[in-house]
Design a protein that fits this description.
heterotrimer; A mainly alpha (about 425); B mainly alpha (about 170); C alpha/beta (about 325); A: about 425 residues; mainly alpha; 20 helices; C: about 325 residues; alpha/beta; six-stranded mixed β-sheet; three-stranded antiparallel β-sheet; about 40% helix; binds sodium ion; DctQ (chain B); transmembrane helix (chain B); transmembrane transporter activity (chain B)
């Protein structure tokens, strides 16, 4: 256990000194494995990890779901979603921020990544909110938080990775994310209402409501159609969740061209961004695989299970402890690496516990429930300082807004997230009702 | 996507999705990018042919599983030098603001070198793997495609990415 | 000495629970605790990498299927992958250990490791949800998932379409009608939740196919163990392990048959189908035997195998 903790410390130090997290994990994991096991075995293990990760069939969803989101982001559909949401909330104080949250949720239904959701919606929602005199903190906070829904509402790259790590049914995990995602949207809407109530100068009293154009209607219909196509395809037995990514990408291309919002250069950008984002994600998966092989070899999962047994904690205490660890880790670790590093360690601990609830008697239900909890803590980590990837995305889009302002705007949403997390932990039915 | 807080959206082309790293425009970059785009398109095509084929013509595409695997690996390794050239690997520069500019730049170079070392090691191991596969005649199970070329592509990609990181200039 | 074992099957798989884990515990007992085996909670690489992992020392002990690697290195191992080899996993595994491990010189194909075991599972069946295969013509157009290698060639020669995918994809594909059936054991039907999607399961005497497994320890690590302890471990491995693991497979098959009950129509292949299958199987056996080269008689090995397991082919 000590050597694992030392390795984690070195990993964090390297990351803070700007070594990309993928290579920091690969180096620390490879060297750690070499020290414990010998250099030739470590070399063979590293080579295998790099080669086999590239050939992992299930991971084909990563580039394809990303491509699907990127095509739609480049097709102008997000504007339509935002305009439609604005029709609902436009007359309320903070209405544009609420419209942002709702359209983030809508875009999440066709985009597998939180960062892409935040990036896309920031381009759409930020100019309007600025024009109407919204404070930067509320505006950026709503986008950063709303964007996190991308990995909870299906499709979700994170749920797929979780499914691969735990051999859980990805189709069920997707279903499980829907209700907590809707709860998330409602919570964020409430957060905006509370924020503007407490501090009315965050947002102007009223905006102006534009009539919906034909394009807006088409956008909403297109997103709905694509989401239904994916869900019906998976659950109606037309294609597997893995194949859904390829089918969804093809359908997104059709939609983008049919609605006329796609330029040639936007298409090119969608391809290129998907390729580079995939290589970035695969580098992280490879690094995490190497690091987690080392941690497994060092016996961390076993000693952790033993420690939990030794402490004699009740199952619920263990769950809360793990959630607390996630919240702390979430401050420092990038979200994908956090999941890839921790799930193999914590999942064996969780799967052996008896939570004394009828809905959690089925081991499969426990995995699904734990998946949603992990995704929600990951969403929280995306907006928690000092390393909140969604906040960074906004910062890079809006270089004139200080990081501090964004984090200040995020805190109401953070409170809403914590309440939602508690709800999801103590009411497993929210995650399990659709899935089981 | 980079975790770097700075990075301009201003110099990005008009239709660029915000929050993404701007891409390079050298000849090799464009060439690899075209290959990567073709690979993504092929992955989509393979799934569509398989799914549509089995319902419309009752004829699934037997090699879909394996082709997807191979195309995926090719895509990842073709795109790796692009991500490396963009500075697109997730990194964190929060603590760096505490240091003076030259120190920041120095740490950036050092981090690049450390990453290049890891990639160089990958390159070496993958080349060895490729040679072993060549020697053992490793083929894919349904289409019987030789697998060694893929290992060599992967090795070349990691080696090239290492060079890119060593030569990369900080803006 | 602590031996690290990397295990890629699910931790609750019958072979892990009833063969590998008890074997590991017994190693400790027969060496008076001088040698222990630690089974990793998570595999240290993908399943197909597991032979190389033991050879390269990533782990000390690994197991896996010979058919994982599509290359020339486990050519003689295919002895155990043909049809009509035996219905009892214990007899199969013992014969496989004796013949492949003996005159077919398995040790040479597993260079860099010491063999702890070579084994097979119970008889492979052909499951499908389209129709009862009564005549050879009924194979036409059936889309069948096969584990690759011999059984792929066999069903293809019989007119069906073989499809390849990982075993975890089978449920997704079968339940969606992407494939009509699958070549699997009894045990896999319940392990992968396929019972509701299979209607007919065809059996032939001795099984339609089988898969062969290796169980190895890194050679350098093995040499570090004292000769007495090595002898003690060898005594509970090899043939003794074939008995243990064979029983684990048999019990798993029996349990699966009990769970399935009459939800699936199990039927013996008709003489007509059997004859067609034998013709194609014979061709494939001959072409395999021709690749073995001097010093190895594949046909004789198959004949001896069937004699040991009591399968008669007229
Ligand atoms: Na999503
Ligand atoms: Na964070």
């Amino acid at each position: 256990m000590t050597i694992s903790l030392i390795a984690f410390a070195i990993l964090l130090a390297m990351v803070f000194l700007r070594v990309p997290i993928a290579f920091a994990m690969a180096i620390v994991g490879g060297i750690g494995f070499g020290i414990l096991r010998g250099w030739e075995p470590a070399g063979a293990m590293v080579g295998n990890a790099v080669y086999e990760t590239g050939l992992n069939y299930s991971l084909s969803v990563v580039p394809l779901f990303i491509f699907m989101g990127n095509v739609l982001a480049g097709s102008g559909i997000a504007q339509g979603l935002f305009a439609a949401a604005d029709r609902i909330f436009g007359r309320m104080r903070g209405g544009l921020a609420m419209a942002t949250v709702l359209s983030c949720g809508g875009f999440s239904a066709v985009c597998g990544s939180s960062l892409a959701t935040a990036a896309t919606m920031s381009k759409v929602a930020m100019p309007s909110m600025r024009r109407f005199g919204y404070s930067d903190s509320l505006a950026t906070g709503a986008i950063a938080a709303g964007g996190t829904l991308g990995i909870l509402i299906p499709p979700s790259v994170v749920l797929i990775l979780f499914g691969l790590l735990t051999e859980a049914d990805i189709g069920k995990l997707f279903l499980a994310g829907i209700i907590p995602g809707v709860v998330g949207i409602l919570g964020y809407l409430l957060a905006v209402m509370v924020a503007v109530r407490l501090k009315p100068d965050l947002a102007p009293k009223v905006g102006e409501v534009h009539p919906m154009t034909r394009r807006d209607v088409i956008s909403v219909l297109a997103v709905t159609a694509l989401f239904v196509f994916i869900m019906v395809g998976i659950y109606g037995g037309l294609f597997t969740p893995i194949e859904a990514a390829g089918m969804g990408a093809a359908a997104a291309l059709v939609i983008a061209f049919a609605t006329g919002g796609m330029t040639r250069s936007a298409l090119w950008t969608a391809f290129l961004d998907s390729a580079t984002a995939s290589a970035m994600i695969f580098a992280i998966i490879i690094g995490a695989e190497i690091f987690s092989n080392f941690v497994t070899f060092a016996g961390l999962p076993d000693s952790l299970s033993e420690m939990v047994d030794g402490l004699g904690l009740s199952p619920w205490m263990v769950m809360l402890l793990i959630v607390a660890i996630y919240l702390v880790l979430g401050c420092f670790l990038e979200s994908l690496s956090m999941i890839l590093l921790t799930v193999p360690v914590f999942y064996p601990v969780i799967s052996n516990l008896d939570f004394g609830m009828a809905v959690l008697n089925d081991p499969e239900a426990v995995v699904t429930w734990f998946a949603i909890i992990v995704v929600v803590v990951t969403e929280i980590s995306l907006i928690t300082p000092p390393i909140g990837m969604n906040v960074f995305v906004l910062r890079s889009v809006l270089p004139d807004v200080p990081l501090r302002t964004i984090f200040r705007g995020v805190y109401v949403f953070w409170v809403s997230d914590i309440l939602r997390l508690a709800l999801i932990i103590f009411v497993p039915g929210l995650s399990l009702w659709l899935a089981h | 996507m980079s975790g770097q807080a700075q990075g301009g959206a201003e110099d990005a082309p008009h239709d660029m999705i915000p929050g993404r790293t701007p891409h390079r425009h050298t000849a090799w970059y464009r060439a690899l990018a075209v290959v990567a785009a073709v690979l993504i398109a092929l992955m989509i095509a393979v799934t569509c042919i398989d799914v549509v084929g089995r319902y419309l013509f009752n004829h699934p595409f037997g090699g879909a599983y394996e082709l997807t695997q191979i195309l995926l690996a090719a895509l990842v390794f073709v795109a790796l030098p692009l991500t490396s050239a963009d500075g697109g690997h997730v990194e964190v520069d929060l603590a760096l603001h505490l240091f003076p500019r030259p120190v920041q730049r120095g740490l950036g170079r050092l981090a690049g070198l450390v990453s290049a070392l890891a990639l160089g090691f990958f390159c070496w191991r993958l080349a060895g793997l490729g040679l072993t596969q060549l020697h053992e005649g490793t083929r894919s199970s349904s289409l019987a495609l030789p697998m060694a070329p893929l290992a060599f592509i992967a090795a070349a990609s990691c080696g090239f990415s290492a060079l890119v990181l060593i030569l990369r200039r900080e803006d | 000495e602590e031996l690290i074992m990397s295990s890629w099957l699910p931790p609750k798989h019958p072979v892990v629970v009833n063969a590998f884990k008890p074997w590991a515990a017994e190693v400790e007992k027969v060496t008076d605790g001088r040698v222990t085996v630690r089974i990793m909670g998570k595999p240290l690489g993908s399943p197909p990498a597991h032979f190389d992992m033991a050879r390269d020392g990533v782990a000390d002990i690994t197991y896996g299927l010979h058919s994982f690697t599509e290359d020339n290195r486990f050519n003689r191992a295919r002895l155990g992958q043909f049809s009509f080899l035996g219905d009892d996993a214990i007899a199969n595994s013992k014969a496989y250990w004796k013949i492949y491990g003996g005159e077919l010189n398995a040790a040479e194909e597993h260079k860099g490791t010491h063999l702890l075991g070579l084994f097979m599972h119970g008889p492979g069946l052909l499951h499908n949800n389209k129709r009862k295969i009564e005549t050879p013509a009924d194979f036409a157009g059936l889309k069948l998932r096969v584990p690759g290698g011999y059984v792929g060639d066999l069903v293809s020669a019989l007119g069906a379409t073989p499809l390849f995918m990982s075993s975890t994809e089978v449920y997704e594909k079968l339940s969606r009608g992407v494939i009509d059936g699958v070549a699997f054991t009894y045990e896999s039907m319940t392990a992968f939740n396929l019972t509701d999607y299979i209607k007919y399961s065809m059996t032939v005497p001795g099984g339609i196919y089988n898969t062969t497994w290796f169980f190895v320890v890194n050679e350098a690590k093995w040499e570090k163990i004292s000769p007495e302890d090595r002898a003690a471990i060898d005594a509970i491995s090899g043939e003794a392990f074939a008995e243990r693991v064979g029983k684990a497979w048999n019990d798993a098959d029996a349990k699966a048959r009990e769970v399935i009950g009459d939800k699936v129509d199990f039927y013996e292949a008709s003489p007509e189908v059997l004859a067609a299958m034998k013709t194609e199987a014979d061709k494939l056996e001959n072409s395999w035997a021709a690749t073995l080269g001097d010093g190895y008689d594949g046909k004789a090995a198959l004949a001896e195998f069937r004699k040991m397991t009591g399968v008669t082919l007229e």
